[in-house]
Amino acid sequence: MSRLRIGVIGCGNISATYLRNAALFPQLELRACADMVLDAAKARAAEFGIRAMTVDALLAADDVDLVLNLTIPNAHFDVSMSALRAGKHVFTEKPLAATAALARQIVAEARNRNLALGSAPDTFLGAAGRLARRLMDGGAIGKPVAGTAFMMGRGMEHWHPNPQFYYQPGGGPALDMGPYYVTMLVNLLGPAKRVMAMTATGSAERRITAPGPSHGTSFAVGTPTTAMALVEFANGAAVTLGFSWDVYRHSNQPIELHGTAGSLRLPDPDTFGGTIGLSEAGKPWQDFETSGLLDGEINWPYAAPDRANYRMLGVADLARALATGQQARASGDLALHVLDILEAILVSGESGAPQMLAGGPPQPVALTEQDALALRGQ
Predict the structure, then answer these.
(1) Distance (Å, rounded) from C-alpha 122 to C-alpha 140?
(2) Domain for residue 173, yes or no?
(3) Beta strands, E only, the chain
(4) Is residue 294 helix, strand or coil?
(5) How far apart are CA 103 and CA 12, in angstroms?
(6) Could you tell me if 206 and 300 lie in one domain?
(7) What distance in Å separates the CA atoms of residue 20 and residue 60, rounded to the nearest whole number?
(8) Is residue 175 part of a domain?
(9) Residue 239 β-bridge partners
């Protein structure tokens, strides 16, 4: 398989993790990086031995096959569309775009140009997600009936030096963190069909307490900071979701799924590893640790030294898909359906009315352990 030559646009915090992890996958080759702030691109380029370029020059580069879009959410649409129009495949950070309408345009552009489109999160392809999928597909909990998923905390301004964009349309806990949870659920349960929700904003302004030039300043909040929803999946399962940046402390599990034969609990889906718990027909929880498994080991995390962080796994799977003609698992179609669900939560919260969803893509093909080894060239 020929190597997929990658150019990165957006050299902020998350880019170091992607660039570092590229070395794990022999089918990927880093070529260049670009950023609106050229000094940021030069710093990353020096760190990883690649070229620093302007955005326009990277888009025109003949030796770049795929643009890895690591810009802020409100820039995802413009950068991804520009890359597709330049004839490049695209893998973007989540969400696919700030709105589902814009995301649909990206998906259509990629399809019309016969180019590959992928999107984070790819965490569901990690060791914990793969094990959970095997258990679900093997009937460990029987027919899925109910579930819960909770992402709750105090937000980003306590650690991020410039958190303002997280609190504007296209951000918020639903669109920023929700993709991890909803993508994992769609991977395990298949597409969703209906959403009911309520939303709220805890504080109209947020004060930045993270170190940096903005420390002590405040900014206006432009999107709900709490969303509580009920999602009905096409297979009949109903899952309660809670996304909030207005919570100091809670004791909810990140994800639990309950079926006719047992229950399954999952770790934080923002990591590729963690402990899976299984209770068969009410028996005590049996824990399955994934820290010793491929893509589950503690590695080079960003600000989380107890986690497995293998961002770039989805790009490697997309490279495999290009070589084999198969569908990438962390696909644009999957990301669009996830965004449809999350946007429906916000719309339902504002309107008070249930939202029906257009049919989503088929459940992603499970990534087997053999497949995962093949992505590492083994």
Answers:
(1) 24
(2) yes
(3) 4-9, 28-34, 51-53, 66-69, 89-92, 117-119, 144-152, 192-200, 205-207, 218-220, 226-233, 238-244, 255-259, 262-266, 275-280, 286-289, 355-356
(4) coil
(5) 22
(6) yes
(7) 24
(8) yes
(9) 147, 231
Q: With bands split at pLDDT 50, 70 and 90, how would you rate the model's confidence at 186?
A: very high
DSSP 329: S
- 168 and 230 in a single domain? The answer is yes
- Statement to judge: residues 300 and 357 lie in one domain: yes
Class of residue 10 by CB neighbours under 10 A (exposed 0-12, middle 13-18, buried 19+)? buried
Residue 211 falls within a domain, yes or no? yes
How many CA atoms within 13 Å lie on the side-chain side of 181?
29
In this predicted structure, what is the pLDDT of residue 354? 98
Q: Please give the structure tokens belonging to residue 332.
A: 């644009």
Instruction: Note whether 256 and 344 are same-domain residues.
Output: yes
As for how many domains the chain has, the answer is: 2
Predicted confidence at residue 299, as pLDDT, reads 84
Whether the per-residue pLDDT at 305 is higher than 90: the answer is no
Range of the domain at 187: 126-304+333-361
Same domain assignment for residues 102 and 167: no
Instruction: Specify the DSSP element, H or E, that contains 98.
Output: none
Q: What is the pLDDT of residues 275-300, one digit of tens each?
A: 999 999 999 999 999 999 999 998 86
Give 68's strand partners: 8, 91
- Nearest to residue 126, comparing CAs of 312, 257, 260? 312
Q: What is the pLDDT of residues 28-79, one digit of tens each?
A: 999 999 999 999 999 999 999 999 999 999 999 999 999 999 998 889 999 9
What lies within 8 Å, CB to CB, of 94 at 6+ separation is 119, 120, 121, 179, 180, 335, 338
Read off the tokens for 135: 């258990």
